[in-house]
Specification:
mainly alpha, 73% helix, globular
Amino acid sequence: MNQTFNLKRFFKYVASYLWLNKWYLTITALLFMVSGTLFSLFNEAPGVLMTLSLGIAIVALRTNLPDGPQRHLLPESTVIEKFVTESLIKIAFVAIPFAIHTAFIDGSQSLFTDGFQIEYLTLIWVVMWAATPFATVNFTKKDIGSTAARFCRAIMTLNVVFATLNLAQITTHALDSVPDYPALVNWLLLTVGTALFVLSYYLFKKRFDDYKKSDKINED
């Protein structure tokens, strides 16, 4: 298939993806997105960081892996269309609570408050793209079995999340205040997260390429 981005095909894929994952995404949204929003509305900034970070990591575990049964139920689309779909879902876990938070702040507050401080957003950015490569690591059934593969992905992803949260806890003195990072640290976190984003796409594409090769071998 031509690997160009086709908007019509993309929207068809998004609709099918959301429908097939509706229960999983609904439950995770209720557990993490809604709770993160409520934490922000009640000025509990640490709760926003913890719930949204964990929610994003768990959503990453649901990546539409090429050897999953859903692959055969979704419309054909390019790798970039698949990656953009799943990236937007993870970003929505932050963007939607942030939009609601923005609508409810009063004139005396800054836009970036109550868990959406720049320092927290850069930490969440790192968690978002640190969890994704671990979720897409090519643990095949042939190598270690499907159950073990899922277990390894879950353990490694949660390790990344909790390591990041522990870092946040240390730097914020048990999360009792907003971290006061130098601007350089925030730029560093942004850079690390962006590098992990690029790595995520590389691993995502490689996994689909490897799967197509194995499909062709099996057909031969």
